[in-house]
Amino acid sequence: MTRTTHIVLLSSLVASLATAAMAAPTQGSGAQTRSSQAAVSAAPPTQAQLRAMPTMRLLRLGQKALTVEMDTQDFVTGLDAVKIASARGDREATRLMAKIMARHQIILGADDRAKLERRFRFEALRGASSSVLAVANMYDRGDGVPADTKKAAEWYLWAARVGHERAMAHAAYAYGTGRGLERNEATALKWLEGANEGRQRSTLLEIGWALVLGTEGSKDMPAALRFFERAAQLKPSTVYQVALDLERGTRGVQDRDAASHLIRIAAERGDTGAATHLANALSSSANIEDQRRAVQLYGIAAQDKANLAAGQSLSRLLALRPSQDLVSDIVAALEKAAAAGNTEALTGLAHAYSEAIGVVASPERAATLLQQAADGGHAEAKYKLGLMYKSGVGVTADLAKAIELMTSARDSGYPLAAIALNSMAEPSTTNSIEEPAKASGQASEAAAQ
Q1: Which among 386, 404, 406, 383 has a CA at the least distance from the CA of 394?
Q2: Which residue from 58, 170, 352, 443 could staple onto 85, CB 3.0 to 4.6 Å apart?
Q3: Rounded to a whole number, what is the distance in angstroms from the first to the last CA of the chain?
Q4: Residue 59 domain-assigned (yes or no)
């Protein structure tokens, strides 16, 4: 739940370097002297210089430690500055130190811990939520005090009660997993209500995995699934990923029954990947109700126009000439997916109208659907529409248009298009379909003369 980063304060080293720079010989040209002076002026302040600064200036330096990366000199200087200001008894500095610790999850040197804890306690008692959270983190990680998850949970609850959102997530985790508190799912969910959606989702997933893996002492798959289901209400795709991890065992626990349950939940919540996954499993069943459910799921998934696999699956099912009971369901699903712009569904629905499968035959309707799919870049649709323009079925015959579509289909990687082109045009010595006719006419005139 927590991430600990160790830092080493560089103040003494910086001070040594600065002293060495000031004491270095200044022999050589004036330019070298100016360069040395610039280097000295750019050096960070020493501990002695920081102690001589007024508190307001120390606080300004300390503010930088909230926003910069930990491996920068500004962070080291800012941390030193706020420690000095806090040691003077400045309450704002103490609260700032708590925020820095909470944001960066740092562990300070042993000499600073006891003093800081006393200051944080004082601020916490006055309701400063960042200070309360910092004390909770100290107990949770054993930073300067013996690790005590019960005390940590108490401080997390205190911070949560005064409105700290991150503390609310910690409190929810503690209740959800039993870390420092007696497990209570209802209370865990209650605390999460005050957190934003992203934090709610991540905490629900963390609780779920802790219960799956037993990282907090107890394994409880049924309870874990309940937390995962709640996360699916917020973002079903994250739970579909959990299901895949459980199905494959990528996080050390493999449970296909739990995975299947979560795939179904994610599919019902609208995740198209989960819907396709579940439909693939059901479509191979001999049970007609399973097949019908597969069609429904493919239909839901195919309404995401980017999910071409679902649209292709519906088209394939229709091409297999299923029982009449399913044909109407498949056509209805294709209609909805086609309306959403799924090019595979458009092509499959065009096949239905061409072959009168579940609908009244309409070559014109088929051509319209193929045109929409071709406009969306679908190679097979270009090929089929090209054949229609060649034969004049559903459209006015237009060999030039047919060749244009076939050429585009071939260039898009559809292999049958190249074969069809050979039957439509002369070898590539001509640039258009009109040129062979002109060449033939000229040859006839020459022979007559």
Answers
A1: 386
A2: 58
A3: 96
A4: yes
